[in-house]
Amino acid sequence: MRHTGKIAALIAVAGLICVTLILFGARLGLWEPIIGFGLYRSYFNAIGVGIFSAGLIALAIHLGRGEKGWAGIGGVVALL
Q: pTM score, two decimals?
């Protein structure tokens, strides 16, 4: 449980990579634009909910342990 902030940050970075890949996959030649639009419509909400819930869990754990200082700020940053 010590590394929940780091895990939440890694999930956020993985989500950022997924979103970037979906947005620019057609420009990179990975698929046709219509397929990228389908991926956008199918997976953007799921990616957003996953990142938000990981950040919320990390924030709840940090606040539940009564940590002071920047530990709680890390959970808020993961939510953003």
A: 0.70
